[in-house]
Amino acid sequence: DVPKATEPRGDSDGPRRGSLCDRHCAAINNVQGDLSDVGCHLHRPRVLPAMSPPSYCQQHSEEVCESCVVKTTLTAENVVEANKLSNNYKFGFKKWKSHVTARPWEDRSEIVKELYSDLNVIRGSGGSTVTCGNILYLLLFGWWLSFIHVLMAAMMFITIVGAPYGRLCWDLAGYFLWPFGKVIQKVEVPKSHRALGACEAGAEASGAGESSALLGGPVPRRWRPWCWADGGHWQRAGAVAWLCLGYPMLVLAHGLVCVTAWLLVVLIPVAKLNARTVTRVLLLPPEQVAVRRLRMTEVPPEGEVILCCYRAVNPYYYKYAVDGINVFAVNLLPLVLVTLVLGYVDSHNRLTSSPVKFTLALLSIMPLSYYIGMAIASISAQSNFAVGAVVNATFGSITELTFYITALIKGSREGNRCYAEIVKSALTGTLVGCVLFVPGLCMVIGGIRHQEQRFNSRSAGVSSALLFLSVGGVFAPTLFSKVYGKLVCGECHNVTQNPLGHYLCHNCHFDLMENNGTLYYSHVQPLVYTVSLLLPAAYLIGLFFTLKTHTHIYDIHISGCHMPGHHHSAVVHWSRWRALVILLLSTLCMSACADLATEHISPILTNSTISQYFIGVTVLAMVPELPEIVNGIQFALQNNLSLSIEIGNCIAVQVCMLQIPILVLFTIFYPTNFTLVFSDLHVYASMFSVVLMNYIFMDGKCDYFQGTVLVMVYFILLAVYFFAPSPSGC
C-alpha cells in the first residue's frame, strides 16, 4: 500500500496540458524521484537534469506547477490484492492495510519468516543467550516449570515401571529451566538394542557407539528396568503410568504457560515451545528423546531436531497473523465470548458489576470491528465494483449504527432523554476525533520517520468539500431552532436585589414545543427530513464524481511483479462465502455487545462525576474506531499519508451523510427521543474542527508539527467536554 513512483501523465490527457507542462512535470519528477520502493521494484536514484526545474517555475506562474498531476504506481502480488489496493483509494470504500491473500513466502522479509518458522532450526552462533527476554522467561515460567518436572520425575521413579519417563522428566527439568542454546532431538534406537532383555545389556547397548560431534558427547544413556523390551509387559505398564499420572499434570502446566505466553504476544516463541512439547516430545518413547547442549562448532545433527530455541522474546510478533487475522484480534476473540456469557447468564449482576460488564462489552467491539472490516475488504476485493459498493455502504457503518440504535431504543422504553444526548455526543465525538485526532496522530507518528509527507490535495479537497456540506446540513436544524425558538430557563435569581437588575439563570434551552409544538412539527421537523434526504443524495453524487467521472483525481495504477519467479495465483485468506458468514456473525455479536453496553451504562451515567458529554465523545465515539486508527498509523509509517487522511475524512463524512440520516429514518418507524438539534458545544466544536482541518490540508504537505497542532486542539476540546455540565435530561 505504499506509493511507488511518480510518473507524469501522458498524452492521454488530451489538450488539457501542453508540452511545457509535460516537460515541467518530468523535471520535477526527476528531482523528486521515487517516494518509496518496496516489493519487486528496485530503487534507482534519479540523475539531475542539465536544466534545473526551478527555472520553469521562475519563468511561468505557479498554476503551471500545480497543474502537473502525478501518477501513483502500486505493486500487487495478484489480481485480488490489486483490487484491494485500488479499493483503498476509492471514495466510500473501507481502507484496509492487511493483506487479504497469502503473500508468497519468498517475498517476505527475514524477520517475518522467522515469526512463522518452527522451533527446530539450528542456526549459527548468534551471540550470548543471556538476554533480558530470556531472563524474563526464567523469572516468569522457567523456575516453576522446571520444579514441576522434577516432581513428576520423582513420582515416576516411585512407580518403578515409569522410571524411564522419570529420567525423561529429569532431563526436561534442566531443559525448561533454561532452554536457550539447547536442543531436543529424536534419536533412533537400533534394532539390536530392542532385542536385549537384560537391564545391563540394554544400558550398555544404549550408550555404546553413539556419539555426535555436533551435539557434543555421547547420547545420554537411559536407565531401563529389568526385562525392559519393546512391546513387553513392563513397557506397557510404564506407558500407562505415564499417561495416567505424569502426562496430564504436565499438560496442564505447559498449557498454562502456552496460553499466558500467547496472550502476551511478544512471548509467542515460548508458547510454541510448550505447545510442541505437549503434542510431540511428551508423547514419544523416552528412549527416543535426547536433550543436548549445542556448542560453538556444530554440524547438522543426524537425528530429527524437535525443539531448538534461542530467545524467548521477539518484539516483531505484533505482525503475526493466523489465517490472515492479526494476533491481537485473535487474542481478543475469547473476550467476546466471555462478555456474552457474563452479560446474558449473570443478568442480576451476582458475579460482576454493571461497570465491569459495560467495559467488557465496549472492549469486545474492537475485535468485532476488525473482523467486519476484514470481511468487507475480502468481499470487495473478490467481487465487482457494484457488489463492493453495496457491501461498503451497507456494513461500513454497522458498528456505530448498532450501538446508536440500541441506545435510542433503550432510552425510548425507559423514557430517558439522556440516551439521546449520549448518542449525539458520540456522533459529535466521532466527527471531531476523525477530523482532528486520527489525521493528527498519523502525522505525528509518520513525521517521526519522514521529515515531510505529501498527500493528494485534490482528493482531500473532495472530502473537505463534502465535510463542509455535511456539517452545514446536519447543524442547519440546530441553527434554525436557535433563531426561531424561545429561550426557556428553569431557574433564575436576581443578583442585584433590583427588579430591573440582572438575573442569573440556569438550565436554559430553546423551546421548540411552544403552542403545542407548532414550531417543531411545522418548521423544524420538515427541515430535518429535507436535510436527511439531501445529505445521502450528496453522498451518492460524491461517489459518482470520484469513482466515475473524475477518477483521474486519484490516478492510481496497479502493476504486478516482474521479477523471475514471482508469478503467483491468489490464495485468499477468506473466500467470499466465508467472509460473508463471518460478516453476519460479527454483526450479530456486535448487536449483542451493543445491547449489553447500553444495558449497563445507566449506573455509569448516574453515578459518575464525569460529564456525560465527555463519556460520549471519548469512550463511546473512539473505541469502535481503534482498528481504523491502527490502519491509518500503518499507512503513515509507510509514507502514504493520503490514505491516513482519507480514513478520518471518510468516517466523518459517513457520520453526517449516512449515519445521521439513517437514525432520522429510524425514528420515523420507531419513535424515540432523538431530534436533530444539538447543543451549542457540539456545533462550535464540529465547525471549528472542520475549518482547522481544511486550513492544515491546503498545501498538500505536512509534518509532525502540524499533526501536533491537530492533536493538541483535540485534547483542548476534550478538556472542554470534561468540565462541561451534564446535558439536560441526564
Question: How would you sum up this structure in a few lines?
Answer:
Pfam families: Na_Ca_ex, YccF. The chain is mostly helical.
Characterise the protein shown here.
This protein is mainly alpha-helical and 730 residues long. The protein has two domains: 166 residues, no CATH class; 397 residues, A middle domain of Talin 1 (Up-down Bundle), CATH 1.20.1420. The strands form six sheets. It has a three-stranded mixed β-sheet. Strands 6-3-7 form a three-stranded antiparallel β-sheet, covered by helices on one side. A hairpin with an 8-residue loop joins strand 11 and strand 12. Helix 4 crosses helix 13 and helix 19 runs antiparallel to helix 24. The chain is elongated. The two termini are 46 Å apart.
Number of strands: 14
- Tally of separate domains: 2
CATH architecture of the largest domain: Up-down Bundle
The CATH class of the largest domain is identified as Mainly Alpha
Biggest sheet: strand arrangement = 1-2-13
Largest sheet: 3 strands, mixed
Descriptive key words:
59% helix; 14 strands; mainly alpha; 730 residues; A middle domain of Talin 1
